[in-house]
Design a protein that fits this description.
By secondary structure, this protein is mainly α. The chain is built from 3 helices and no strands. The protein has helices at about 5-35, 40-45, 45-70.
């Protein structure tokens, strides 16, 4: 057998990601042509949508932590 099961999975996943990139780019282009605002590939691509959601969640947690630190006075350099 020329490929291991892991390598076959990598081949499948790469092919699936490529197919979704093609489909998502067509959908985003059609939406933009129809007059939609702020349409991006991430909206239609299931692999990229999960990453975008994770990035937004991480950003929100960082902002909350910064706000809480400022509220408690730990972000102020004068309090040393």
């Amino acid at each position: 057998m020329p490929y291991t099961l892991r390598e076959l999975f990598w081949l499948y996943e790469g092919s699936d990601r490529q197919a979704w990139m093609h489909t998502a780019s067509i959908n985003a282009t059609q939406s933009a042509a129809a007059g939609a605002k702020n349409c991006s590939i991430e909206k239609y691509h299931p692999y990229l949508a999960g990453q975008a959601l994770k990035d937004k969640k991480d950003k929100l947690l960082a902002l909350k932590a910064r706000r809480d630190a400022a509220k408690n006075g730990k972000d102020n350099c004068k309090n040393g």
